[in-house]
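Fold this sequence, please.
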Amino acid sequence: MNLSHDLSALEETVKRCHALVPVVEAAGRALAERVKAGSKVLVCGNGGSAADAMHLAEEMTGRYRGNRKALPALSLSADGTALTCISNDWSFEDVFSRQVEAFGQAGDVLVVFSTSGKSPNILKALEVAKSRKLLTLGALGKGGGPAQKLCDHPIVVPSDDTSRIQEIHGWIIHAWLECVEALAVGKS
C-alpha cells in the first residue's frame, strides 16, 4: 500500500485534465440548455459508474449547492427490479436500452459513465438514445472506447487507471451541476 503514490498519481491525472475544461463546460452547457427547456435526464453506468449515475441524478432531483426546484433526472442503474427483470427476460446487455426506450423522448438527455467505454449495455443504450434523438453525454476513460463515437459530448479522462478515472468523473459530475444551476435554474 502506497497512499502517497496514489495521491501523486491523482495529482498527475488532474494536471492532464486541465485540457478537458472546455469540453466539460460545453457538455455542461448543452445539458443545462436541455434541462432549461424542460427535458429529463437519464443516467446510467455499471459498478462504481452506477454510483456516479445515481450521484448525478440525486443531485439534480435533490440539490447541489443551494435550494432550487427539483430537476427531472432518473438513474437507470438504481431500480433493482427493472435491472433483474430485464436481465432475466432479455439480457444484461439490454438493462439500460430498454429503459431508454421506455422513458427517453426526443430532446431528453442520456448521460453514461463508463471507465472503459466498452460495456455492451452502455453501447446499446447510446444506440437507442441516438435513434430516439436524445442528446448523449459520456464520462469515459481508457481512450473512450466505442462509446466515444456514440456520444455527442464525450469526455475522455486521460488515464487507464480505473480509480483515477472515477475520481475525475466525480469532478465532472460537479462541474455539470455547476453549469445546470448557473444556466438552467434560479435559486429559490
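The mean pLDDT is 95. The chain is about 55% helix and 15% strand.
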